[in-house]
Design a protein that fits this description.
The complex is a heterodimer of chains A (about 300) and B (about 270).
Chain A lengths: L6 H10 L3 E5 L2 H9 L8 E3 L10 H9 L5 E4 L13 H14 L4 E4 L2 E4 L2 E7 L5 H18 L3 E4 L14 H12 L2 E5 H11 L3 H6 L6 E6 L3 E3 L2 E6 L8 H14 L3 E4 L8 H25 L5
Chain B lengths: L1 H13 L9 H10 L4 H10 L1 H22 L1 H7 L1 H13 L10 H14 L6 H17 L19 E3 L3 E8 L16 E10 L5 E6 L1 H11 L5 H12 L5 H16 L3 E4 L7
Antiparallel strand pairs in B: 1-5, 2-3, 3-4
Classes of the chains: A alpha/beta (about 300), B mainly alpha (about 270).
């Protein structure tokens, strides 16, 4: 049963969170952030699975940082498209962690990462089918009710599909969002990687999405596969490239002010280098917001 | 449909339907065994079968990296045998946890009984694996209350320790190969008692104990005996005369453990009779 479509719900969700460019908090520079002066980022994003159900230095440090910075949570293992729901104990731990960090929403990926009781720890693409839409939308609504915060789903990068699609990916995403009334975490790098690997126009793809539902944007780097240089892999292990910056500005020009994250998970450089990249992103983000405002300006 | 796709994904990424460097022919044969309909098989052919194998690389790479990160010394010492057991773990059991860091305990739960009967695996490797896993456990245990001030100890009361501490016994001097993960040396065969704990600075540390000190601390921490009972019984057990020297050394040990943030003070619960 679809929820009543409400772009206004997503606007309210977006307004409840930070806007501007934030950074994925990684253990490699956690101490530097903790002990140094306040860093000029709009927010930090963390994967709660890395901190849940544990004590010690990392959760203690994270808790201290929540007093100084806004946090968004972005999960890895909800496996929203899987047939089996996540374990209740996992959801309880996730709910506690999201609440502890004060995240205004929680996001995870539009994918499957499990097979029955097996957890594959990878973002496996779903078949773009009506059956998948219904299952994911149900799971999103149930998860939202369990976690007590709005949910957002991220479009994933993929290299192959197992099941032949019944609809284009943009329609698949739109239907999931409409039936669940959840937000979209738009990963512009994933769109770019998929466009390169599958030969479609990334700009058209973005403009075909229900952008009024976007609550957050992800930006990252990618690399060519070492074993096959015709394949682009979503590694999060390289600086953001110019075409992805262009896609970000395009998206922001249509979305408006929103939370934008620089993701870096591999070959993580020093904090100063990451912050320089945040500044470059901010310049393009600001340009995008300016274009958005121009588009929505009321003529004098 | 999704259940079937999930089974295929699991078999593709964890199974051994083809080797580590599979040929297209091997993958085609594997696909045929999955019972795909002609239209589905055609769809996969159109995408390029090698694209499917990307997921095999990614899944196995993620899991292997997690294990290497958690127990680098064991992986280094097992060499090619690690690859063999890694493949067997994926094929016969597979990861079940939501938490990548917990794949290591799952892997060890599967492998240790097999290593115990595999003559190729040195006995010390099992102890080293236990120890590396214990370090992870201690590192991620819940923190003790902040600002805790140890209460005075009494001979007639028990002693309370932080949760993030364990006393372990090995047949090898495991602690001597811990500092350098790349150190390929084999630990000496020597009965070894260690206290593994998390410091107030959240570092996992290891303290070598004498057999008598280990006996006293085990009686205090696990049997919840009073300090008096623990010292008297441990001395009897170890056939060590109970005198000024033992009492002095025990007091020094407990003071040292309080300094290290391991000893919380007098136990609040009523000790066993």
């Amino acid at each position: 049963m679809p929820r009543a479509p409400s772009a206004t719900t997503q606007s309210a969700t977006r307004r409840s969170g930070p806007t501007g460019v934030g950074l994925g908090l990684r253990w490699e520079f956690l101490e530097e952030v903790l002990e140094g002066p306040r860093i000029d980022v709009a927010f930090f994003e963390v994967s709660p699975e890395n901190y849940m159900r544990r004590g010690g230095y990392y959760p203690a440090a994270l808790e201290a940082l929540t007093e100084r910075y806004a946090f968004l949570t972005h999960g890895l293992t909800l496996s929203l498209g899987a047939v089996d729901p996540p374990a209740p104990s996992y959801l309880a731990e996730l709910e506690a962690e999201v609440r502890r960090l004060g995240s205004p929403w929680h996001s995870d990926h539009l994918c499957c990462s499990s097979s029955g009781s097996l957890m594959l720890h990878e973002l496996l693409p779903l078949q773009h089918s009506r059956e998948s839409v219904a299952r994911v939308a149900d799971r999103l609504r149930a998860t939202e009710d369990r976690l007590g915060v709005p949910m957002a789903v991220e479009n994933v990068s993929y290299y192959a599909h197992l099941g032949a699609p019944e609809m284009p990916e943009t329609e698949f995403i739109s239907r999931v969002l409409e039936q669940s009334d959840c937000g979209l975490l738009l990963d512009v790098n994933n769109v770019y990687v998929n466009a390169k690997n599958h030969g479609f126009d990334a700009r058209e793809f973005i403009l075909d999405l229900p952008l009024e539902r976007v609550v957050q944007v992800h930006v990252a780097g990618h690399s060519l596969a070492q074993w096959d240089t015709s394949l682009t892999i979503d590694t999060h292990g390289a600086p953001v490239c110019d075409p992805v910056y262009d896609l970000l500005e395009l998206a922001i020009a249509h979305i408006g002010p929103v939370a934008v994250l620089l993701e870096r998970d591999n070959d993580i450089p020093g904090l100063s280098e990451l912050l320089a990249e945040v500044r470059r992103l901010e310049a393009r983000y600001t340009a995008g917001v300016r274009r958005f405002e121009e588009r929505h300006a009321i003529p004098a | 449909m999704q259940s079937r796709l999930e089974r295929i994904w699991a078999d593709l990424t964890l199974g051994d339907g083809f080797g580590d460097e599979p040929t297209q022919a091997a993958v085609r044969a594997w696909l045929e065994r999955q019972g795909l309909e002609a239209s589905e098989a055609h769809f996969l052919e159109q995408q390029g079968i090698e694209r499917l194998l990307v997921y095999r690389r990614l899944v196995r790479g993620n899991l292997r990296e997690a294990l290497e990160l958690c127990m680098p010394r064991v992986v280094a010492r097992l060499g090619a045998m690690f690859d063999e057991y890694f493949a067997r773990f994926l094929r016969e059991r597979g990861p079940r946890t939501h938490y990548l860091r917990d794949v290591t305990p799952e892997f060890l739960e599967f492998c240790v009984p097999l290593w115990a009967i595999d003559a190729r695996v040195p006995a010390y490797v099992i102890e080293l694996a236990d120890h590396e896993a214990l370090q992870l456990t201690i590192a991620s245990m819940q923190a003790c209350p902040k600002g805790h001030i140890p209460a005075e100890l009494s001979l007639e009361a028990g002693v309370e320790f932080i949760d993030a501490s364990r006393i372990v016994h090995y047949e090898h001097a495991i602690h001597e190969v811990l500092d350098d993960a790349a150190n390929p040396s084999t630990p000496r065969r020597e009965s070894t008692w260690l206290l593994v704990y998390r410091s107030p600075e959240h570092e996992v540390r290891t303290l070598k104990l004498t057999p008598l000190a280990a006996a006293i601390l085990l009686r205090l921490s696990e049997l919840k005996e009073t300090l008096n009972q623990a010292v008297v019984t441990a001395c009897a057990e170890r056939r060590t005369p109970l005198g000024e020297e033992v009492l002095g050394e025990t007091a020094a040990l407990l003071a040292d453990l309080a300094d290290r943030g391991v000893l919380l003070g007098q136990a609040s619960t009523v000790p066993r009779e």
